[in-house]
C-alpha cells in the first residue's frame, strides 16, 4: 500500500545538519578562519564583493566559508544580506584619476606619464605547480621604493586632449543614477544601468561574451588603453550636513578599453570607449566588462546589432549568476504535476499516432513490414 | 509655525499598521464598491482625513511624486506632515504624479491632467485619492466589472457630482486609465479603471 | 561584523511599499504584468521568490498561511517557505485549505473551492505567455499593448493542424477580462477553469523576472481555444486510489519496476479530508485507461 510521503521537515533538518558537518570536514584539521580567507584567498573575496555588490571583506569571507568555497553560493549569500540593508543614498563619484595605484599598465603606449607599474600580477609567471607553497612557505620581502608623487593621468584623458577619443559623457548635475536593485529594469536600458548590470554580472559569462567579440561576433577592435588597480577614497554628501564626508577607502580595478570607430555621416572617425570597474583586483572581469560595454553601445553608435554581445536584452537578462543558478537549479524541485500533464498528453499523442498509422497502412504494406 | 514635534503623529506601529491599512486598500481595489474600514489610526493634519493619512503612511515614499490639490497644498501642516512622515516629493505637474490627494472634490481638475499610463506601461498612472462626504449615504450607484459578483451597490455623497460620468473615459482608454480611491473619514472605496458605474439617483 | 536583523515578514518597509503599490496596479489592470524591483531573497530565484515577496507584502498577524507545492503541503520547498514565514512573521500556518486566508502555491490550485476571504498567491517562473514564441521583452510588450495575440493563436492552431488538438498540457494560456493574454504559471490545464469567476483574489509573483500580476475576484478568465476545438481540461480517467475522488487532479505513482502504477490526489489536504470523512479508494493500481475529461470539474 502506498503511503503519502511525510516527514519532509525532519528530512530538511537532517540534511542541513549533514551539510554543516561536511562543511567543517575532518575535525582533526584546523578550522579555517575568516582572516585566512580574506588574506590568502583575497581574489575570491574580491569576486564575491564585486558580484555580491557589497564591499565588506569580512562578510564576503564568511560567505565563502559558509558556502564551502562555492563562490556563486557565496555571492548569493552576500546579495540576500545586502537586500535587507537600509539605503542612505549614493556616494559621490569616485575619482580613479587620484587612485593610489598599485598596478597600472597600458597596451597603447610604451611609456605614459606616471609610468607603467607592474604590481602584483600573475602575468609572466610560469604556470608550474610550486611544491614549496604546499607548506611553511615564507615569501621574500617585496622590493620597495619611495612612493612616487608623480600624477598618473588616465590614458583616455591623454587621448581626449587631442580629440582622438570620444569625450566621456558628463553626468548632468543633480541627475540621479539608475539602480536596478531598486527599480524594475526596462528596455532599452541606459548605460548607467548596463554598467551596473555588468559590474554585478558573472565573470565567466562576461569572459565568454567579451571573448566572442574578439572572435568576430560583434568585433570592435579593442586596445587596452589602461588597467589600473589601487585604492580610492569614497565620499558621501549627507543632505543635513551639506558637505562631502569621507567614508573610507576601497580597492578598485578599472579598465578603459579603446576601440575603433569608423565614424558616421555626422561624426569624424575617432576612438570609442569601453569601460570596466570592479571591487578589489579583478582584471579578467573588468577587461571582459569593458569589451561587452563597448559591444552594447552598438545602438548608440549606430552600428548594426548582429552578435549576442551587442544585444542588451540577451546580455542583461542572462548575466546575473544568482538569477541564473536559481532558475537552472530549480529544475530539481518537484515538477510531477506538470510532468503528469505532459505524460498524459504524450500518451494521447502516441495513441493517436499508432491509430493513424494503423489506418493508413494497407494490408500489403503490413505484410511487407512484417517481412 | 508648526514644529516637527507638534505635527500629528504617524503610525504607532509602523509595520503592522501599514500592513493592516494596505489590506483594507487592497480589498477595496479587489472588490470595487465595497466599503472597507481603515482601523489603525494615525494623526491627521489640517484638511486630511484619518483614512487618507493612513493610506499616505502606507503607500507614499521618496519614490512616489505626489500632487496636492489647492486646499491640501495651502495647508502647511499637510505638506510638513507628508514630508516628515513619508518623504514623498510634492510636484506641481500632476502628469508625473504617482498619487494625487484631493480634499476639495468640487475643484477636481480634469483626469486628463494626470498620468494615464501608456499602452505599453499602463501602470504608470496617477492613483487619485479623493476625500468625500459619505460612503454610506447619498446617491445610489450600481457598479459592474472585475472584482464584483454581478452588481455592487454603493451609496455615496461625492463631489464632484459628475465624478462617475467623468470616469467613463476609463472605458475607452483601457488599459490606460485612472484608478480612484474614495475616502470618507475611516471608510475607503476604490474604483479601479475596470469598474463601470451607473447612477440610480438618490 | 554587521550582524543581520530582519523585519516582520523579512522585507523592509520600503520594499513592502513598492510591492504593495505594484499589487494595487496589478489588481486594477487584470492580467497585465506590472514590473517591480524584485529583491534578492534568502531563497534562490526560481524557487518561489516572487510568491514569497507578494506573500510577505500582504501577510499580517491575523492571517493563517498555507503553502503548497505540486498540490502538497509536505513537499520540501513548501515546508521551507512555510517555516520561513512562521519564523519571520510568526503567523499561524495550516494545511487545511478552508482554514487559510493566504495560500501560496506552486503549480496547483487547491481542489476545495476558494472563498472571498482568501488570497491565492502563485509562484511564477516565466510570467510572459508569449516568451517562448518571442524571446524579446520589447516585442512582447508591444504585442500586449496592441492586444496583438495572433502569434499565440497561430501556435495553437499549428498544434491542431499537426495533432488534431492543442498540445499544451500545463501553463495553458488564458485571456483575462477579455483583454490580456496571461500565463497561469505552470499549473496543469485541469486547473484553468478554477481561475474563472473565482471568489478569491489571485496574485502572481515572478521574482527573477520581476513581474507581479493579478486576477481580481469574479473576473472572467477564458482558456484560449477555437470554436471547433474547445478547451478540454485533461485528467487521468480514474478515481483516486486513496480517497476515491472522481474529479481531482491525480499524481501517478510508480509502485514497482514491472509497470505497476497507482493514481492519487495531488492535493494532499483534499485527499486526507475525504479519507477522514470516510471515503476510500481501491488502494491498488487503477486500470490503465485515460481520456480527456469534459469540462465538468470547473
Task: Write a brief caption for the model.
The complex is a heterotrimer of chains A (371), B (202) and C (298). Chain B has 202 residues and is an alpha/beta fold.
List keywords for this structure.
A: 371 residues, alpha+beta, 3 domains, 13 helices, 4 strands, 12% strand, globular, disordered N terminus, B: alpha/beta
Could you characterize the architecture of this molecule?
The complex is a heterotrimer of chains A (371), B (202) and C (298). Chain A is built from 13 helices and four strands. With 371 residues, chain A is α+β, with helices and mostly antiparallel strands. In chain A, strand 2 (222-237) and strand 3 (244-259) form a beta hairpin. In chain A, helix 2 crosses helix 4, helix 7 (191-200) packs antiparallel against helix 9 (283-296) and helix 8 (203-214) crosses helix 9. Chain A is globular and about 85 Å long. Chain B has a six-stranded mixed beta sheet. In chain B, a hairpin with a 2-residue loop joins strand 7 (179-184) and strand 8 (187-191). In chain B, helix 1 crosses helix 2. In chain B, 51% of the residues are buried. In chain C, 26% of the residues lie in helices and 17% in strands. Chain C has helices spanning 13-28, 49-58, 76-89, 137-145, 150-163, 192-195, 268-276, and strands at 34-35, 64-69, 92-93, 102-106, 119-123, 174-176, 180-182, 201-206, 211-215, 221-223, 250-254, 261-265. In chain C, the strands form three sheets. In chain C, strands 1-9-8-5-4-2-3 form a seven-stranded mixed beta sheet. The model of chain C is unreliable at 284-298 (pLDDT under 50). Chains in contact: A-C, B-C. At the A-C interface, helix 1, helix 4, helix 5, helix 11 and helix 12 of A face helix 3 and strand 11 of C.
Amino acid at each position: 500500500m502506498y503511503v503519502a510521503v511525510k516527514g519532509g521537515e525532519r528530512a530538511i533538518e537532517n540534511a542541513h545538519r549533514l551539510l554543516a558537518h561536511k562543511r567543517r570536514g575532518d575535525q582533526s584539521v584546523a578550522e579555517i578562519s575568516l582572516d585566512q580567507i580574506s588574506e590568502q584567498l583575497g581574489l575570491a573575496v574580491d569576486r564575491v564583493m564585486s558580484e555580491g555588490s557589497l564591499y565588506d571583506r569580512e562578510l564576503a569571507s564568511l560567505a565563502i566559508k559558509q558556502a564551502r568555497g562555492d563562490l556563486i553560493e557565496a555571492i548569493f549569500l552576500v546579495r540576500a544580506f545586502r537586500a535587507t540593508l537600509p539605503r542612505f543614498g549614493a556616494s559621490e563619484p569616485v575619482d580613479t584619476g587620484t587612485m593610489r595605484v598599485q598596478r597600472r599598465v597600458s597596451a597603447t603606449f610604451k611609456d605614459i606619464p606616471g609610468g607603467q607599474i607592474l604590481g602584483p600580477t600573475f602575468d609572466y609567471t610560469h604556470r608550474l605547480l610550486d611544491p614549496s607553497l604546499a607548506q611553511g612557505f615564507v615569501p621574500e620581502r617585496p622590493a620597495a621604493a619611495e612612493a612616487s608623487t608623480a600624477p598618473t593621468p588616465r590614458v583616455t584623458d591623454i587621448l581626449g586632449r587631442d580629440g582622438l577619443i570620444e569625450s566621456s559623457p558628463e553626468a548632468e548635475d543633480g541627475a540621479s543614477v539608475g539602480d536596478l536593485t531598486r527599480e524594475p529594469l526596462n528596455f532599452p536600458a541606459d548605460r548607467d544601468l548596463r554598467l551596473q548590470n555588468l559590474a554585478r554580472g558573472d565573470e565567466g559569462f562576461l569572459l565568454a561574451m567579451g571573448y566572442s567579440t574578439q572572435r568576430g561576433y560583434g568585433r570592435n577592435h579593442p586596445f587596452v588603453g589602461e588597467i589600473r588597480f589601487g585604492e580610492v577614497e569614497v565620499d558621501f554628501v549627507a543632505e543635513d550636513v551639506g558637505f562631502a564626508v569621507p567614508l573610507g577607502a576601497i580597492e578598485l580595478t578599472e579598465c578603459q578599453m579603446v576601440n575603433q570607430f569608423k565614424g558616421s555621416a555626422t561624426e569624424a572617425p575617432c576612438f570609442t570607449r569601453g569601460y570596466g570597474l570592479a571591487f578589489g583586483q579583478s582584471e579578467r572581469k573588468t577587461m571582459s566588462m569593458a569589451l561587452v560595454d563597448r559591444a552594447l553601445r552598438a545602438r548608440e553608435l549606430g552600428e548594426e546589432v548582429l552578435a549576442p554581445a551587442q544585444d542588451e536584452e540577451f546580455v542583461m537578462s542572462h548575466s546575473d549568476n544568482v538569477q541564473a543558478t536559481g532558475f537552472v537549479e530549480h529544475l530539481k524541485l518537484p515538477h510531477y504535476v506538470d510532468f503528469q500533464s505532459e505524460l498524459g498528453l504524450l500518451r494521447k499523442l502516441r495513441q493517436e499516432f499508432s491509430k493513424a498509422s494503423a489506418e493508413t497502412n494497407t494490408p500489403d504494406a503490413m505484410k511487407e513490414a512484417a517481412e | 509655525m508648526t514644529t516637527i514635534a507638534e505635527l500629528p503623529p504617524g503610525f504607532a506601529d509602523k509595520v503592522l499598521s501599514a500592513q493592516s491599512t494596505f489590506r483594507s486598500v487592497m480589498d477595496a481595489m479587489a472588490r470595487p464598491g465595497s466599503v472597507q474600514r481603515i482601523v489603525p489610526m494615525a494623526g491627521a493634519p489640517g484638511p486630511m482625513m484619518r483614512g487618507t493619512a493612513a493610506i499616505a503612511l502606507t503607500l507614499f515614499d521618496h519614490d512616489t511624486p505626489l500632487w496636492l490639490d489647492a486646499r491640501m497644498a495651502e495647508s502647511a501642516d499637510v505638506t510638513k506632515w507628508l514630508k516628515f512622515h513619508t518623504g514623498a516629493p510634492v510636484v506641481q505637474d500632476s502628469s508625473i504624479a504617482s498619487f494625487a490627494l484631493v480634499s476639495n472634490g468640487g475643484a477636481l481638475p480634469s483626469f486628463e491632467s494626470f498620468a494615464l499610463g501608456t499602452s505599453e506601461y499602463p501602470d504608470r498612472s496617477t492613483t487619485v485619492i479623493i476625500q468625500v462626504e459619505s460612503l454610506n449615504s447619498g446617491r445610489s450607484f450600481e457598479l459592474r466589472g472585475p472584482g464584483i459578483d454581478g452588481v455592487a451597490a454603493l451609496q455615496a455623497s461625492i463631489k464632484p457630482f459628475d465624478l462617475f460620468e467623468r470616469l467613463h473615459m476609463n472605458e475607452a482608454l483601457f488599459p490606460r486609465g485612472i484608478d480612484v480611491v474614495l475616502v470618507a473619514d475611516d471608510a475607503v472605496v476604490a474604483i479601479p479603471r475596470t469598474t463601470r458605474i451607473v447612477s440610480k439617483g438618490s | 561584523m554587521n550582524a543581520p536583523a530582519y523585519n516582520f515578514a523579512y522585507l523592509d518597509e520600503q520594499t513592502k511599499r513598492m510591492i504593495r503599490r505594484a499589487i494595487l496596479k496589478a489588481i486594477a489592470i487584470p492580467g497585465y504584468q506590472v514590473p517591480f524591483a524584485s529583491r534578492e531573497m534568502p531563497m534562490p530565484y526560481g524557487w518561489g521568490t516572487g510568491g514569497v515577496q507578494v506573500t510577505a507584502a500582504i501577510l499580517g498577524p491575523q492571517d493563517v498561511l498555507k503553502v503548497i507545492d505540486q498540490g502538497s503541503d509536505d513537499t520540501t520547498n513548501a515546508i521551507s517557505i512555510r517555516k520561513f514565514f512562521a519564523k519571520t512573521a510568526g503567523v499561524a500556518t495550516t494545511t487545511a485549505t478552508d482554514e487559510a486566508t493566504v495560500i501560496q502555491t506552486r503549480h496547483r490550485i487547491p481542489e476545495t473551492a476558494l472563498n472571498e476571504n482568501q488570497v491565492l498567491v502563485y509562484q511564477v517562473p516565466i510570467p510572459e505567455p508569449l516568451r517562448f514564441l518571442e524571446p524579446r521583452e520589447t516585442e512582447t510588450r508591444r504585442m500586449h499593448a496592441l492586444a496583438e495575440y495572433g502569434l499565440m493563436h497561430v501556435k495553437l492552431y499549428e498544434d491542431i493542424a499537426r495533432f488534431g488538438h492543442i498540445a499544451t498540457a500545463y501553463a495553458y494560456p488564458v485571456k483575462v477580462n477579455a483583454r490580456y493574454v496571461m500565463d497561469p504559471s505552470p499549473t496543469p490545464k485541469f486547473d484553468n477553469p478554477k481561475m474563472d469567476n473565482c471568489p478569491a483574489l489571485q496574485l502572481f509573483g515572478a521574482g527573477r523576472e520581476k513581474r507581479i500580476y493579478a486576477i481580481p475576484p469574479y473576473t472572467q478568465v477564458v482558456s484560449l481555444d477555437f470554436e471547433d476545438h474547445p478547451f478540454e481540461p485533461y485528467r487521468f480517467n480514474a478515481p483516486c486510489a486513496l480517497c476515491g475522488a472522481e474529479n481531482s487532479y491525480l499524481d501517478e505513482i510508480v509502485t514497482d519496476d514491472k509497470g505497476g502504477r497507482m493514481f492519487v490526489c495531488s492535493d494532499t489536504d483534499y485527499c486526507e479530508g475525504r479519507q477522514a470523512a470516510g471515503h476510500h479508494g481501491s488502494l491498488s493500481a487503477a486500470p490503465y485507461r485515460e481520456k480527456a475529461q469534459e469540462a465538468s470539474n470547473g
